[in-house]
Amino acid sequence: MTVPRIALTAPVGPSSAPLVVLGPSLGTSTILWEEVVPLLAQRYRVSAWDLPGHGVSPKASAPFTVTELADAVADVAGSEGDSSILYAGVSLGGAVGLELLLAHPRFVSAAAIVASGAFLGGPAPWHERAAKVRAQGTPSLLSQSAGRWFAPDSLQKRPVIGGRLLHSLSDADDESYALCCEALADYDVRERLAEISAPTLVLWGEHDQVAPESKAEEITAAIQGSRSQRIAEAAHLPPAERPHAVAEALRRFFDSITTRRNDA
Ligand SMILES: O=C(O)CCC(=O)CC(=O)O
Fold this sequence. Notes:
Elements lengths: L6 E2 L10 E5 L13 H4 L4 E6 L15 H13 L6 E6 L1 H12 L4 E7 L8 H14 L5 H8 L4 H4 L1 H13 L2 H12 L14 E6 L7 H10 L4 E5 L6 H4 L1 H21 L1
Parallel strand pairs: 2-3, 2-4, 4-5, 5-6, 6-7
Antiparallel strand pairs: 1-3
The structure holds the ligand O=C(O)CCC(=O)CC(=O)O.
The site of ligand L4CXMVQC has 9 residues, from helix 5.
Keywords: Hydrolase
Organism: Microbacterium pseudoresistens
Protein name: 3-oxoadipate enol-lactonase
């Protein structure tokens, strides 16, 4: 395994504000968070990262684990000079969030896990998807992914961002996408959730079939003090489908951490 390389956008927001780092779901890019960033940047410095071979991150050519992706995020976010960060990630980006809380508990002071879970299906479906992408490319996933990503009305209501996200998928590097699938094949932190003590918020889309409410409940049942919140009219990509609802939930959550810190 080799540590994958990822790119982080330059932070936007007040220069002395706490840093919020936002992570993508598989097949998407920083576009996923584009409408949330300005809403959070009123109070936070906000950066987003791209998966290997997606958006502007370099392609991957060797296997990596979700833990190693989390190490890469901690490494690039650490180069911003903050002693700790706040984090939110969607699906694979949420899995990275749980790994960050486990492996970098001093650096990640709170995380929001969005449309994700402690286990995302296991080896068989991910190896199957990796093989399909290596044989036929990411464009072969478009219609099925669109069906899973968006709630019934989301694409009609938000065709521009929906279309751009689907372009992120067809533009993603095939081998990097396949390597992300293989990282998810081996991902399972269910037995380790109770080790997490940092504040954790779980957001789930009411129409999400990839990470439904049961996955959110599995996390909140195991992490003491964590809580979950449903995002209505969203499926697997709530930040793009309901940016204001997601930004509001994140802002309340992060404000509760930073207020506590300021009062201490
Ligand atoms: O979104 C992820 O990071 C993993 C789940 C997934 O692949 C969703 C999809 O494309 O159908």
